[in-house]
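In keeping with the milestone schedule agreed at the kick-off meeting, the structural modelling team has produced records for the first pair of proteins. Each record is given below as a sequence line and a structure-token line. The laboratory manager (R.T.) confirmed that both were archived under the project's standard naming scheme.
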Amino acid sequence: MDMVSGMMRSQLVIQAAENIRKDYRESLEGLSDAEQERILPQIHRRSAEILLDIARQNRGIYNKAAQFVCAIRGPVPKVSWPRIFHCFPPKTYEAHQFGDRCRGAQRRHCLLLLQEYIEVLSVLTDKAPFQSFDVMEPVLTEELKAPVSELFDSIEQTPVAAASLAQVHIGMRRLR
């Protein structure tokens, strides 16, 4: 990945974070606690959809990060919260709204990952986007040190599985 591509990917993330922050602020502004509680799941879902789009566009490590988020269960220490969460009223995110999974002094200093984010991003755990074979063939050629057509009698161009950093193609190896 060249520097320009990396900068463009980073800019997408920065813009998405700003859009999410703005959506939370504007959607919650002036609402009672009860009204905020009612609409928060909708905002969480919209925000998660934005993050899903970013992971799909940027691929690779962004998909892996989204998968990691889905795998976390339980409280996350406040010190590791992304900066965006520090912009909102504490009542929006602190664990006291999520039952007894955070206890004692830790209770006001942890965050439980929101179910809406986990639900939306979990599609990346079993339905990761894949690269076209036109993109993958040169990678295979480089890794295998020979053209694919010399090594395989046939190879399926559509992968049978895809993950955040790899994909699987079925092929019949050419006998030498």
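The second protein of the pair:
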Amino acid sequence: MAPDSSTFAGWLTSWESLKSVGINPFEDFKSIQFSGSHDSVIKAVKLGKVDAGSVRTSALELADKAGLIKLSDFRIINQDSIYKKSMKYHLLLSTSLYPGWPIAKLSHVSDEIAKKVAVVLLSIPPDDACLIAGNYSGWILPKSYMVVTKSLMDLKYGPFLNYGKISTVEAVKQHWFVSSCIFTLLMISIVLSFILYNKNNKIKKNKNVIEMALNENKKLVEELKKHENMLLELNRTKDKFFSIIAHDLRNPLGSFKSATDLLLNAYDTLTEQERKQLITLVKESSENVYALLENLLTWAKAQRGNISTNPEMYNLNRLVSENISLLSGQTNNKNITLTNLMIDETIGYCDVNLFNTIIRNLISNSIKFTPTGGRIIIDSKIHEDNFIAISVNYNGLGMTNDIVEKLFRIDFSHSTPGTNDEKGTGLGLLLCKEFVEKMNGTIWAESEAGKGSTFIFTIPKIKF
């Protein structure tokens, strides 16, 4: 605690002494208080309200003389270590000695009157009755106040608050010629910068226009190239697709033609059993052609976007069971065991017509490639949290990895007779892929040659 932040003897001298040993009281002390008077500082230290106080020299002696304190109750910091050994001084002190302020005038007193009063005070002899009555020795005038000036400079206090700093105005006054040159150059730079900025903006605008035109042209070229590639791909696909259709139509129509030719030309020479066999062949050939045309029409509608979907929540197990019943005649003809392992309440979000087409094609395909007396298993499980995976597994003819990778491509036709030499339509798996993807699902196959295959497709569990 100190009397006031501006008192020289009561605080500034202590501040400078602390600073000289590397202590910043405003940062290193927990707090600094200013009480307003030396007596209140002494009282606060005496009562233990603060840890230490700073007062002017003689303040403690006067308080002791007045009976307010006992000097023995106080510890004077730094008194023994520095000044007691080096100088004889009649008062207690902790800092270097500074000259006092012998004379001061109030702001409303003129300099002339103050000067006359100062001369009178300095002329009073030591034995004057006024000095003796006031217990003063007389007035003294210090030889130099530089020690005070240096202290205020070190603390950067009072008139030296901005010591070491040069203001902009002062710098301009001291270096007016250089300042004028710098100002002139600065103005020239500003004007040139403004001119260059405007020109640069015009260049940027022209550049942006050119870049936009180039980008538009580039986009048009890319779009044309994209459409060109698309048309080329569609043309190649069309040729391959027609090849598939021609191949798949030729086999049943060839059988149909051969059977009808034989019936027409050798009907009377054929036995009843031979005639029935030929009629059965005609029927199977016509059924294959019909199935191919049905799939072809359905696929064509899908390509034109004419097939609308109306997905809802359905019991998938029930739909699978209905399709198994529809195809039971085919399974019975080959004595195939078809097992449905799906749980009763397998619910999925699908279009019922698309789902029926998918499951019918996969079961028919399995019957075709399963040997007489074989087995087909249909099952389901949760797939990636929000999907149900439905699998159709059979133990008949399998496929190589090369064939599996190309199964769902329109540009690839792999026609393999069934275990009873059944003919396929060629479009069943393409329809399955198209319809599964319309319902946000995926389809794939897993197979091993000679051991059978598994076709798997996914259906959403919930509405997307």
